[in-house]
Design a protein that fits this description.
Blueprint lengths: L4 H27 L5 H25 L2 H16 L2 H19 L2
Helix pairs in contact: 3-4
Length: 102
């Protein structure tokens, strides 16, 4: 395995861009006296956006075990805590995979 300078520079550039956007947002918010309502609404939408980017690929690319587990997690999550949602989805995947012999 050889050292690839181009790939190392791409990784460093991506790290610098990530750091700049994170520190830039922090500096911007700390210099404000109050957060405007539109910015607060945008910040409140971030957790849902992040969750969507994590769950959507698993749902559309994953097998039926993943689809069923996510559906069960959705319905359990509407009624119970996050821990029970995780446990229910995990049980569904384990039962599916055990019965399929995967």
């Amino acid at each position: 395995m050889e050292f690839d300078l181009h790939m190392a520079l791409v990784i460093l550039a991506a790290a610098a861009a990530t750091f700049a956007t994170r520190i830039g947002g922090y500096i911007l918010i700390t210099r404000m006296k109050s957060i405007p309502p539109r910015m607060e609404a945008a910040l409140n939408a971030v957790p849902a956006a992040v969750l969507t980017t994590l769950v959507a690929p698993a749902f559309f690319i994953g097998g039926w075990d993943s689809k069923l587990a996510l559906a069960v997690a959705l319905f359990v999550g509407l009624r119970f805590t996050h821990t029970w949602m995780l446990v229910a989805a995990w049980i569904v995947v384990m039962i599916w995979r055990h019965s399929a012999g995967v």
